[in-house]
Amino acid sequence: MKQLLIDGKSLSLEDIARVAYDLDAKTKVKLSPAARGKVQQSRKFIESKLGGRDAIYGVNTGFGLMSRVRIDDSQLDRLQVNLLRSHATGIGRPLSESETRAAILLRANTLAAGHSGVSVALIEALLALLNASVHPWIPEQGSVGACGDLAPLAHLALTLIGEGRAYHDGKLMPSARALEHAGLKPYKVLPKEGLSLINGTQIMTAIGTLVFLRAEALAQMADVAGAMTIEALAGSVAPFDEDIHRIRPHRGQGEVAAHMRKLLARYEIMKSHEFCDKVQDPYSLRCIPQVHGIARDVLRHVREVLEVEVNSVTDNPLVFAKGAKGGKIVNGGNFHGEYVAIAMDELCIAVSELANISERRLEKLINPALSDLPAFLVKEGGLNSGFMIVQVAAASLVSENKVLSHPASVDSIPTSADKEDHVSMGTIAARKARSIVENTWNVIAMEFFGASQGLEFRRPLRASKLVDQAYRAIRERVPPVEHDRAFYEDINTISDVMNRGELLF
Question: With the CA atoms of 92, 156, 129 and 30 taken in that order, what torsion angle do they form, in degrees rounded to the nearest 10?
Fold first, then answer.
């Protein structure tokens, strides 16, 4: 049995993906012994303040504008349950089970840092959901991304206390029944714990982490697709010369240029037209390092933001059990999702550009005015339409990405009677990023489809070693196009080949 220990400070993005996609919970997640001690100390400090005269936000007061309302000690447990119920106002389609698993893991990890004042038992109850594959039903809409992802996280918390709905064994059912089937009991929240379950950025970060890892792989495959198109169009390797990129030394640009040189090494097709009269390729071929390169640099920054965020404490108020004065409870704004929001908006723009330039390369492949290939990459044109509407579909996705790339983070709307007067819209940004990555994934699949078909017209000459390897991975499942057929099946098949990592070089 595989095991992952969480401590609030050392979770990697790859750890999150491993747990998220492990729907059968073969990897068991546990609280590290060191973290256990810190959590216990933090909880003990909170309990020492209960029954005292100090007003502690969310522990013995109301929430938001009603934070001036003092709650009687006899009502503190009820206060937490009421919070979870009233905040479970999510709308729309549910998160995927993988996204939900990522959110549970992230919430447990931030509590494990020992600054939230919760009990060890609460964290273990969250991990029990993961380890028993009980996945709360969480509608994806309803968060403005400040004061955390309140509405969706409240749906997560409802399952913990035996309310709401959850998936178990792939079936949606009342949470109480899902817990019973898994051999678990509803958790009884203690003072402060309801607030600690919903105050934070874990929904936007869960979605964002899984989207980012997909985008990171996509950026690599975009290079491969571009290289295959260059071969199919009998393009030039000259724009990837090391000296060009040495004198404009952006990191991503240099990395992509080096990748293209590797992909296009040992070629036959290019040697066949070494002395042709064509001087320069179109920008969509020639400027791959410049466009793909900045996308890589943006993704590098997004990774840095997410790596910090997944190991951050985003609760409020925060508990510091040790200090010169014996500890303190401090109100702050770590729940605000602006870091994730802007990072996701950056990802949207960068990945949209990978789709934009890919669609232009696909257009070059099908347009006989711009290549020496048959119109729409098919013999007997007229009788066969070939790749005509493949490019149209790609153009549609690219245009949709342009709309979705408008940043969510520049918007804000006051909430909670203007107490929460600036919000991040981070969860909206993450959801947009998810759509853009999926659209771009399919555009790149379409380019692979067109480029592999273009190579058919270069035979018997073969592409470079790595491009030919990618071509053969596609041809094992997608035959050349001799006559029109339902191309959506081919595009979906190539997308699956990409999913399996067979086009990553």
Answer: 120
